[in-house]
């Protein structure tokens, strides 16, 4: 027996009204990533065996720096949302699930920040 | 029905997955692989921002034959996930659910992913002169 009434234990477990937003963000980032990753794949291929100064010079161009930042932001966002679904599907134990979810989200933010700062450092020549 | 074996309950390890099911699980697996690839991309960018020495170390790993195989795998995973993802967008819009259509789009996904991968590597090897 518990001190809590049945109503109290059921309250708050319903829809958080966030499902559609999650679904929509995954599609939004997916659509953005199609042109972005085609650009990324073929740009890296075009650089080929280019030396350090060519690569840095290429990345310093505002268009390339801007697109690279978008690749990082959209890609890591899409990845974090996608991994969330995979984690929720396969990890049944609540505390383990929440721990892994937190780690993935923290990692996505750290990677995005580090990657964007690296691009900015090259683009701004600091 | 006489003389015809009754279907047995399928299990993942015995049941022959239909083409669409194979593509579905591959989409998820490539998604997880690409999340790992994102770590590599960020590492490359940090190396580029850190100077020619750090870049050189990362570059040497990528230029090694083992690194080339890994990079080729990431390229294939990327284009596969992109093509299968585009089909998901069509499905979201309500198109392409008929079985023959789904089968044809599955085949198209495989072909386009391989063509894009080979095209990307052909570009890479042609600019760097082999």
Question: What is shown here, in short?
Answer:
By secondary structure, chain A is mainly alpha-helical.
| Helix/strand class of chain A | mainly alpha
Rg calc of chain A: 20 Å
* Quantity of strands of chain B, as a count: 0
DSSP summary: helix tally of chain A: 5
Features:
heterodimer, A: 126 residues, mainly alpha, 5 helices, elongated, B: 130 residues
What does this structure look like?
The complex is a heterodimer of chains A (126) and B (130). Chain A is mainly alpha-helical and 126 residues long. Chain A has helices at 6-10, 19-47, 52-60, 62-90, 94-124. The model of chain A has no long low-confidence stretch (mean pLDDT 93). In chain B, helix 1 (19-50) runs antiparallel to helix 2 (52-63) and helix 1 crosses helix 3 (65-92). Chain B is elongated. The mean pLDDT of chain B is 92. By secondary structure, chain B is mainly alpha-helical. The chains are: A mainly alpha (126), B mainly alpha (130). Chain A binds chain B through residues 27, 30-31, 33-34, 37-38, 41-42, 44-50, 52-53, 55-56, 59, 68, 71-72, 75-76, 79, 82-83, 86, 111, 114-115, 117-119, 121-122, and chain B through 28, 31-32, 34-35, 38-39, 41-42, 45-46, 48-49, 52, 55-56, 59, 63, 75, 78-79, 82, 85-86, 88-89, 92, 116, 120-121, 123-125, 127-128.
Give the SSE layout.
The complex is a heterodimer of chains A (126) and B (130).
Chain A: H1 6-10, H2 19-47, H3 52-60, H4 62-90, H5 94-124
Chain B: H1 19-50, H2 52-63, H3 65-92, H4 99-127
